[in-house]
């Protein structure tokens, strides 16, 4: 085998490997199909004012390294915020409403008691979190 034949053979292998990896990457709808661990978090609770009265339409923003989702409290101040992501790490919640001071709460992945999720490698963490917001001065 001469030098040029060896180079051509190596180039063909590299091209075929690259095409194979591209096909593998685009062949599924989610990473879960290939056993990549995911974590889902669910936060539930009530948001009240300083006097304990429920606050309606408080924006609850839940943020991880790759997602940013939000929901609003109902007329009873109740909310359910959910997120799912691949790398379990830190989860930040932000509670905000016009006329009230914003409140931020952060959790590390170690702060949860996990249950088995839907898939083979999935985990599900839940937290009940009641928040009180103060009116702006």
Number of domains: 2
Number of helices: 1
**Which descriptor suits the 3D outline?**
elongated
CATH architectural grouping of the largest domain: Sandwich
What is the level 1 CATH name of the largest domain?
Answer: Mainly Beta
Radius of gyration: 23 Å
Fold blueprint:
Layout: H1 3-25, E1 39-48, E2 59-63, E3 68-72, E4 78-85, E5 90-96, E6 103-108, E7 114-116, E8 123-128, E9 131-132
Structure report:
By secondary structure, the chain is α+β, with helices and mostly antiparallel strands. It has two domains: 1-32; 35-132, Immunoglobulin-like (Sandwich). 17% of the residues lie in helices and 38% in strands. The protein contains one helix and nine strands, in the order H-E-E-E-E-E-E-E-E-E. The strands form two sheets. Strands 1, 4, 7, 8 and 9 form a five-stranded mixed β-sheet that branches. The protein has a four-stranded antiparallel β-sheet with strand order 3-2-5-6, with no helix packed on it. Strand 5 and strand 6 form a beta hairpin. The longest helix is centred in the N-terminal third of the chain and has 23 residues, at 3-25. The N and C termini lie far apart (83 Å). The model has no long low-confidence stretch (mean pLDDT 78).
